[in-house]
Amino acid sequence: MTADEAEPGTVRPGGRTARVRAAVLRAAGDVLAERGFAHMDLADIAQRAGVGKTTVYRRWGTVTALMTDLLTEMVESSLPRTHTGSLLDDLTAHARLVYTTLTDPRQGPLFKAVIAAATYDERTAAALRRFYDARITEWAPCVREAAARGEVPEDTDPREVIRAVSAPLYYRLLASGDPIDEATADRAAKAAIAAARAGIFSPESD
């Protein structure tokens, strides 16, 4: 597939066009956090970004394509996982990264809006799944390394452990409305490790 044939918003620009992409994605994230998916408009985003409307329409074409690129950029800019040599320390770092993101004045509302949009827009849902798959893939090796050290059973499912760490934090963000703090993040990491050590995330426990 050539650049001309690619789906709008999926071609990674370089050079000076990277600055345009960064400005547009920043503006899109601001609108999404402030007003939600339903109020996103490419012309408004172009104006906020200080770029020509035709440039935005030509590069992305639709709000959904822009959303897809925004999620891609969020993966690209995410902090890499830690390598502490301790599963507790690794998962605590992961939990605190999720906590920091979800409580950020901009990122928290942005994630809420993206998740809400994913409930009725399939392309946004697919982009969101790719985002979380990338994050889980980034952190899963710390569980495999812990299994090799004997900290958890060898057949522990790494991806399930990582999901178990972040799930309680997202529940508070999206459902209960209870506050999210470092203590909550640390408790989520400890609970995931306790479950892993008990074999909850091993195949035979299904």
TrEMBL record:
Keywords recorded for this protein, A-Z: DNA-binding, Transcription, Transcription regulation
Database matches in InterPro entries: Homeodomain-like_sf, HTH-type_TetR-like_transc_reg, HTH_TetR, Tet_transcr_reg_TetR-rel_C_sf, TetR_C
HTH tetR-type domain sequence ranges: 18-78
A Gene Ontology molecular function term of the record: DNA-binding transcription factor activity
DNA-binding region: 41-60
Gene3D superfamilies referenced in this protein's UniProt entry, alphabetically: Homeodomain-like, Tetracycline Repressor, domain 2
Protein name as annotated: TetR family transcriptional regulator
Organism ancestry: Bacteria, Bacillati, Actinomycetota, Actinomycetes, Streptosporangiales
